[in-house]
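User: Hello! My lab partner asked me to get a predicted holo structure for this protein. The small molecule is flavin-adenine dinucleotide, SMILES included with the sequence. Please write out the structure tokens.
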Amino acid sequence: MEKETDVIIVGTGAAGLFCALQLPEGKEVTVITKDEVENSDSFLAQGGICVLRSEDDFDGYFEDTMKAGHYKNNRDSVAMMIRSSGEIIDLLLKYGVEFERRNGELVYTREGGHSRPRILFHEDITGKEITGKLLAQAKSRGNITIYEHTEMIDLLCKNNICYGIAAVDSQGEILPVRAEHTVLACGGIGGLYRHSTNFAHLTGDGIALALRHKVQLQDVNFVQIHPTTLYSEKPGDFLFPSLSGEKERFFIMQKWSGLWTSFCQETW
Ligand SMILES: Cc1cc2nc3c(=O)[nH]c(=O)nc-3n(C[C@H](O)[C@H](O)[C@H](O)COP(=O)(O)OP(=O)(O)OC[C@H]3O[C@@H](n4cnc5c(N)ncnc54)[C@H](O)[C@@H]3O)c2cc1C
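Assistant: Hello! Below are the structure tokens for the protein in complex with flavin-adenine dinucleotide.
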């Protein structure tokens, strides 16, 4: 069996679903995931999402972001992320995402390296709230079709042009999917680690295939490590404590981040 589509998107996390929703409704969009749609790291993210609240915060927001990235960040990307944040939050609200409100007004908190409160959140399950609503929107669109348990195994390329992917469907059949545009939104490499907070099936497939087809990659050595996980003997099952209040979060972060930072400084 073969399939033809306008756009093939590999991955049903926040990146893949958001991309699908931005494409014109006149285009046929096919989205695949190698597991179930709810099983992506995007559903696991607990913390909130930052936004530029007013122009006078641009410089502070920019500096906080650069500092958190040890000034290795691409300045243009950081500026673009900050500039587009308001528009993206408006879109998420339009898609039905509910952020914490007090007296009807959005509540902003502080997280990570942010020096000012510019984080919107939904309890301790912001990722689930955002990705769940993106998924509901995608399912309601007539031009978007989602296939679960369908795994990309290669890119279809000729003369350095990508014209789709090869996938294995839920019946174990190899399925060439020809497309005008191919989007890899396959998430990270966390599942490759024996112990990880990531889903085990997130094994950097997009990165591996890009390398095989000589697509240039950048900063693949940057891996985020959670300093607040609890160790478990069970492979792939690090416990990520759910921290409901800022007080608890602050206490644990302060206690363990300090130890972690000195560990990193001494070891690397
Ligand atoms: C426990 C935890 C907590 C986190 N907390 C936060 C937080 O508070 N704030 C924050 O900003 N970020 C947080 N993150 C990081 C954040 O979740 C990720 O950076 C983000 O969700 C990545 O989104 P994505 O769409 O790129 O990838 P993912 O959500 O990982 O989705 C990848 C998709 O690609 C599919 N896929 C992969 N390979 C293939 C293949 N070969 N064929 C078909 N499909 C494939 C997967 O099945 C999946 O659907 C957290 C991560 C974890 C694990």
